[in-house]
Design a protein that fits this description.
single chain, alpha/beta, four-stranded antiparallel beta sheet, 8 helices, 35% helix, binds adenosine-5'-diphosphate
């Protein structure tokens, strides 16, 4: 469902971040992307939802040739892909509920988003999404009053509200303490197992990656040097 064919990515400053990537990722996989800083992991993930454009080769996502998308199609395509970041990327001065709602109803006019007047059925759905992550009692709390783990769970609720076909996660636990990190990884696992949503995650905690992922991609200098089951990984990638 995600296929890279001879994909290269060279940034405008001449840095070659990806070279000759060939890969097929399947539905239902939980993929951990590991490797040193600068290896190309983040570029790899960000090419999938076209936050970055590939330089050559082909990238096919669910039958869509990503490089060929234009204007409105890009926005529509991105909405099918949930993105979770290290820094949560929430609007911290508004409530958890508001953060979920805004992504839930992308078509609403801006004035409605700003004034916070949302249709009732959207509100119920957003509250349900927060409830799934044990955050119902935090719905009306400002995001900057929540812990890191709670914020990442709001981000997950927001992402799921979007009903994504794929979830990309760029170091989602890097700023969390080890206990909270595992709780958030459990949430990812649940989403992957119960909803069959494939997850592609950059993660520098190799041990945690091996514990949760079904497949591991090891990057070095813009190429994939390891691709296999988590159980077969030796720690020196
Ligand atoms: P990783 O996620 O593994 O740390 P990145 O994909 O961020 O690796 O970076 C791969 C290489 O591309 C690095 O040399 C990095 O400096 C470079 N790079 C990343 N983003 C950009 C960018 N927007 N413009 C130019 N070079 C970039
Ligand atoms: P693209 O070719 O994908 O559009 P650009 O080369 O235009 O990417 O860079 C995108 C942004 O990333 C620019 O604002 C640039 O300043 C920034 N950037 C440049 N070098 C790096 C780097 N080494 N790591 C991360 N970001 C970078």
């Amino acid at each position: 469902m995600i296929e890279f064919r001879e994909v290269d990515k060279t940034y405008s400053n001449g840095v070659k971040a990806l070279s000759s990537i060939n890969l097929k990722l399947n539905r239902g996989e939980f993929v951990a992307v590991i490797g040193r800083s600068g290896a190309g992991k983040s570029t790899f993930i960000r090419c999938i939802n076209r936050m970055h454009e590939i330089t050559s080769g082909q990238l096919i996502v669910d039958g869509t040739n990503v490089a060929k998308l234009k204007g409105k199609q890009i926005r529509r395509f991105r909405r099918r892909i949930g993105m979770v970041f290290q820094s949560f990327n929430l609007v911290t001065r508004t409530s958890a509920l508001h953060n979920v709602l805004v992504s839930f109803v992308p078509e609403l006019p801006l004035w409605r988003k700003l004034t916070g007047i949302f249709p009732k059925h959207n509100k119920i759905a957003a509250l349900t999404a927060l409830d799934q992550f044990g955050l119902l009692d935090k719905a009306y709390v400002r995001v900057d009053q929540l812990s890191g783990g709670q914020q990442q769970r709001v981000a997950l609720a927001r992402t799921l509200a979007q009903r994504p076909d794929i979830i990309l996660a760029d170091e989602p636990i890097a700023s969390l303490d080890p206990v909270t990190a595992r709780q958030v990884m459990n949430d990812f696992r649940e989403i992957n197992e119960h909803m069959q949503i494939p997850i592609i995650m950059n993660i520098h905690h190799v041990e945690i990656a091996l514990e949760y992922a079904t497949r591991v991609l090891g990057f070095r200098d813009g190429t994939i040097v390891y691709d296999g089951a988590a159980k077969d990984v030796t720690p020196d990638i």
